[in-house]
Design brief:
- By secondary structure, the protein is an alpha+beta fold.
- It is built from nine helices and 13 strands.
Length: 297
């Protein structure tokens, strides 16, 4: 098969994927999204002969719009435009999870500084203020007092961009110093890891320590349901353990706080026995085979 890798920068994640594809003898077409012009009717020349496009764009806006065009050209794309839309916006992400009855942190959205302050006061301290668009834990704030809330809200209000006028306020979840990242394909987990840190943010991009994590039946169920809620695809599902039971030393449940659509997997691949890029390519081969009526990829 001919796999188009739509990218803006080739990172270690993309290198792992490219190496696996080439080792299996697949043709790879690298498509730099920064050099493309997307028309309404015909695909750019770089897409000619591509069987499936894998969206690895770093910028959210490029990912969202490029996938819409690729689908309009009737080229299969991973992940699809619907999934990109839902996962790239925390409001849409939370709404999709809630609609699917997936446990997710309590969230309130406000559109003015005053109403956002009311929401923060309703949650109590600490609570969390997040940008509606963004990744790697950037511009997220744990708010511990009213004075901190006032300063942060005023700062956001003066930033100018309309997205900063959407105040996404969320309860602070008391997690055990870690969260869980699951990489899954159409809801089937490939592997999972815990990301541990003394800081309240446990993103690997912020230096959290990582280790393999074995999912139980409940976690696997939530990963499948969360994946279905956002349209499926190659996803990173983030869970936190909640409801610690002192008598058993176990947690009663999980909450799913986010689903990521251009998931990074280099950190996961480095700590688990599973060959993550190989599993991803297995899935891609199956998707292309299904698109071509069962012909082997």
């Amino acid at each position: 098969m001919n796999v188009g890798i739509l990218y803006s920068r080739i990172r270690q994640d993309e290198k792992l994927l490219l190496n696996e594809l080439r080792e299996r003898g697949h043709e790879v077409t690298k498509i730099d999204v920064r050099k493309q012009n997307f028309g309404l009717h015909e695909a750019p020349a770089d897409f000619e002969g591509v069987d499936v496009v894998v969206d690895r764009c770093l910028a959210t806006s490029r990912s969202v719009y490029a996938t819409k065009f690729v689908e309009a050209y009737d080229i299969p794309v991973v992940n699809g435009a619907f999934t990109a839309d839902v996962c790239s916006d925390k409001v849409e992400n939370s709404l999709a999870l809630a609609e699917a009855d997936v446990p997710t942190p309590e969230t309130t959205v406000a559109f003015t500084k005053d109403s956002a302050m009311d929401a923060i006061e309703d949650f109590g301290y600490p609570c969390v203020l997040k940008p509606v668009v963004g990744s790697w834990g950037r511009l997220m704030a744990k708010i511990d007092s009213r004075s901190a809330a006032e300063a942060i809200l005023e700062h956001k209000e003066t930033l100018g961009h309309y997205e900063h006028k959407v105040f996404y306020v969320q309860e602070f979840v008391e997690k055990p110093g870690r969260d869980i990242r699951v990489v899954a394909v159409d809801g089937e987990p490939i592997a999972a890891m815990v990301r541990s840190s003394e800081h309240w943010l446990t993103n690997a991009a912020k230096g959290a320590e990582t280790a393999e994590f074995e999912l139980d039946d409940r976690a696997e169920e939530l990963v499948q349901t969360a994946s279905d809620a956002v349209g499926g695809g190659l996803l990173g599902v983030d869970l936190m353990e909640v409801g610690y039971d002192e008598s058993t030393g176990d947690f009663e449940d999980y909450t799913v706080h986010e689903v990521n659509h251009t998931v990074e997997f280099k950190a996961l691949d480095g700590v688990v026995d599973e060959d993550v890029p190989a599993r991803v390519v297995d899935w891609l081969e199956d998707k292309v085979a299904a698109e071509t009526g069962g012909v082997e990829a």
